[in-house]
Amino acid sequence: xxxxxxxxxxxxxxxxxxxxxxxxxxxxxxxxxxxxxxxxxxxxxxxxxxxxxxxxxxxxxxxxxxxxxxxxxxxxxxxxxxxxxxxxxxxxxxxxxxxxxxxxxxxxxxxxxxxxxxxxxxxxxxxxxxxxxxxxxxxxxxxxxxxxxxxxxxxxxxxxxxxxx
Length: 165
What we know:
By secondary structure, the protein is mostly helical.
């Protein structure tokens, strides 16, 4: 969020220095504990109850992933909702407005978690993807916000010529 220009949103839970070599270096010590997604007993029970769907040929597994993605999708933005300091009613109204996107994101998240060796990598990429999605949502909410300009321009490309002498 800091890299995308939303430092004011991050400062609600963590100080952000005005300048630094990278967005990560600009972050100060957090004021509050950071929870990626909360523990949900309800989600675990729904997961177990929906598990027999996977035995239904052809449609069982996709239906299982879609139904469990319905609950898993909004959990990916738990930190975003905490940064916005929304009440449960505001959060639920927002999720209802974007239900299809959240369910799709949650279903893809669960599919990627089923990949045996790479599931830990996909856990990290899903967290990064949800943060980039949150930045896009903030940009949609605030269209008048100026685009973030990189701290330093990319270096000029110069062709390498080998001097044989």
